[in-house]
Design brief:
This protein is α/β, with parallel strands linked by helices and 198 residues long. 37% of the residues lie in helices and 25% in strands. Strands 1, 2, 3, 4, 5, 6 and 7 form a 7-stranded mixed β-sheet that branches.
């Protein structure tokens, strides 16, 4: 069975490639901001928001490709007060997000949903607790000099596999989840389905 990743995310593609998973990547074509706004109106928690967005991506591609197993994934950053951060629209907003994260703990929730023939057949949601060290104004500016606009597609304004690691004093949870997908459970399911050898 062929696996299709309903995403053009570089980090998700890199994870699957490094793990030796054969797949094709296809853009889901989902307007994420509109979808998030609609889901936010339903008062969803971060866990349910990530799950719903991952399912939306998987179903959208699966409805076009009824022969493949389709993997959708999404990540949400939630502050301790429950506020969810979106991807920054510009460098100034990225700096604001980093100031809000500074010296605090937040939760990064990553979900993965598998769809087949236009219906969801499997799902997983995982969380990581992210402890951000206190960030000085000069560090934030230097960091953005190096990382903007590369982090413009990252909800937490960081790529943990790069200089974003410098933001943290501690991380509790799977690095794969932080990178944007709970990879190990995904690999387990792919073995069950015969995409990977058992």
């Amino acid at each position: 069975m062929k696996l299709v990743l309903a995403s053009k995310s570089a980090s998700r593609r890199a994870m699957l490639t490094a793990a030796g998973v054969p797949f094709e990547a296809v853009a889901a074509g989902v307007d994420e901001e509109s979808a998030k706004a609609a889901l936010a109106g339903e008062g969803l928690a971060a866990r349910d928001m990530a799950d719903a967005l991952a399912e939306l991506k998987a179903l959208k591609v699966s409805q076009r490709d009824g022969e493949s197993l389709v993997l959708g994934s999404d990540s949400i950053v939630a502050l301790e007060d429950g506020t969810m951060l979106d991807k920054p629209v510009d460098r100034a907003q990225a700096a604001d997000h980093l100031r809000r994260l500074s010296g605090k703990r937040h939760e990064l929730v990553s979900a993965a949903v598998m769809a087949e023939q236009g219906r969801a057949v499997w799902r997983i949601v995982d969380r990581a607790k992210m402890h951000v060290r206190p960030l000085s104004a000069s560090f934030i500016e230097t960091y953005l000099d190096a990382e903007w606009p590369a982090i413009s597609g990252c909800v937490g304004c960081y790529r943990i596999e790069g200089p974003g690691a410098q933001l943290f004093s501690r991380i509790e949870g799977s690095q794969f989840t932080v990178l944007g997908m709970p990879l190990l459970p995904v690999l387990d399911y792919l073995r069950v389905r015969g995409v990977l050898p058992a």
